[in-house]
Amino acid sequence: MLLAPSLLAADFGALTTEIQRLQAPNAADWLHCDVMDGRFVPNISFGLPVIEAIRRAAGDLPLDVHLMIEEPGRYIDAFARAGAHKITVHVEACPHLHRVIEQIKAAGCASGVALNPHTPVSQLSEIAADVDLVLIMSVNPGFGGQKFIEHTYRKVAEARALLDRVGSRAHLQVDGGVGLGNIAALGRAGADCVVAGSSVFSGGDPLGALAALRVAASAAVSDAQ
Ligand code: DX5
Ligand code: ZN
What we know:
single chain; globular
């Protein structure tokens, strides 16, 4: 299971220090960066200059940029130049989703597509083979610290079945309300990457929290064997 801590829950006043801590061995696999525009979601987080600053502090850690913005196609090249390695856009924000996915790849980034809780997995049927990452939102996007929505397990299993059917090796990521209580079940349902904000940062010991998540996730693997 890949762990992508969400910097939304980090201390923005000490972002460089927070990020450097996450570079310890077996800590973060990716840095998840939540970009919100106050239109696609009812909150504003940060944008391009902050992504550039995160990139400078991140060392070898890939930046997993989750765009919760309208018309993301207008900004793909700018986010790629700012240092994104992976760019995920929402199905709900893209009437020309295939074009935006091609734009992300042309910019040299891994391409991801996200589904809000009410959006069915079937919306991905014609794009699943073309993307590098599928993100199932397990909360309504916009805020950290929300309660995990239980129907996510079923959606993850459906998305896993779709990716297998089209022969895709795309990552299957879950974002929102993920912690020790559900990471194992998400792994069993077919997720191979989770985003975690509050469960990593709110206790004041992000490295300890990440280590505990790894133990919980690997327990899921051994249970299943
Ligand atoms: C929500 C964001 C998430 C959020 C997760 O809109 O996409 O990445 O930061 O935070 P937690 O883990 O606290 O739910
Ligand atoms: Zn996110």
